[in-house]
């Protein structure tokens, strides 16, 4: 197994892409700490991982709250004896609409979940990773941060911030043997954010129009992203840091 007994936190793992990441890492031997604000979803993911022979447990935490993030990291160390990697997957978007129509509360939530969470993960996880002799972060950004389009302006900006922050942290934390990378998935209609990205119901017309912009002709899946995360947290990627890997079927070309 490629990441046998690595201790890994996956935020926002109670469904969607985070669920796929958590399950893929567990398949390859990791001790996965599944995090979500939705306890029902998180516990379901854990139960399914364990039923398939994997190692996982759940911890409820709000990634926008410092005390919660500290408790999450402490739980990983207490349960697994260490922390090897943190996958910052939790994310949120405002509805696809003109920039001036997005409320201040929506803007604040977008940046709290997408950007402040990276700050808090860094503050609380870096000391644990240093004690472990190093480790890695994988931050889930988006193609929206590379190739922004009208309607999701503030979301696009938040993901652009994740990309730049990841690169800066890679340079700063490298001497601690801490790697920082990010992944830019293209839209996955099966996530809870699909309709918000599209600006309404995911009709076949909307899906067909968006799909036509992806050269490989399909949307991303949780498995696609999970495979990319698996590589980046594994020892196979021990010299890979500061990279933003586009999992997008050539959407950003």
List the helices and strands and how they pair.
Blueprint: E1 7-10, H1 16-27, E2 31-36, H2 39-51, E3 55-60, H3 66-80, E4 85-88, H4 104-131, E5 135-140, H5 153-173, E6 178-185, H6 194-198, H7 204-211, H8 222-233, E7 244-247
Helix pairs in contact: 1-2, 1-8, 3-4, 4-5
Short overview:
This protein has 253 residues and is an alpha/beta fold. Helices cover 45% and strands 15% of the residues. It has helices spanning 16-27, 39-51, 66-80, 104-131, 153-173, 194-198, 204-211, 222-233; strands spanning 7-10, 31-36, 55-60, 85-88, 135-140, 178-185, 244-247.
Number of domains: 1
Main sheet strand line-up? 3-2-1-4-5-6-7
CATH architecture level-2 label: 3-Layer(aba) Sandwich
Which blocks of ≥5 consecutive residues have pLDDT under 50? none
Q: By CATH's scheme, which homologous superfamily applies?
A: NAD(P)-binding Rossmann-like Domain
Main sheet, how many strands, which sense, barrel? Answer: 7 strands, parallel
Cα distance, first to last residue? 34 Å
Report the CATH C-level class.
Alpha Beta
Assess the beta-strand content as a share of residues: 15-25%
By DSSP, the count of extended strands is 7
The proportion of residues forming helix, as a percent range, comes to 40-55%
Mean pLDDT comes to 96
Would you write up a description of this structure?
The protein has about 250 residues and is α/β, with parallel strands linked by helices. The protein has one domain: Rossmann fold (3-Layer(aba) Sandwich). It starts with 6 loop residues before the first strand and ends in a 6-residue tail after the last strand. It is globular, with a radius of gyration of 17 Å. Helix 1 packs across helix 8. A 7-stranded parallel sheet has the order 3-2-1-4-5-6-7, with helices on both faces. It is built from 8 helices and 7 strands, in the order E-H-E-H-E-H-E-H-E-H-E-H-H-H-E. About 45% of the residues lie in helices and about 15% in strands.
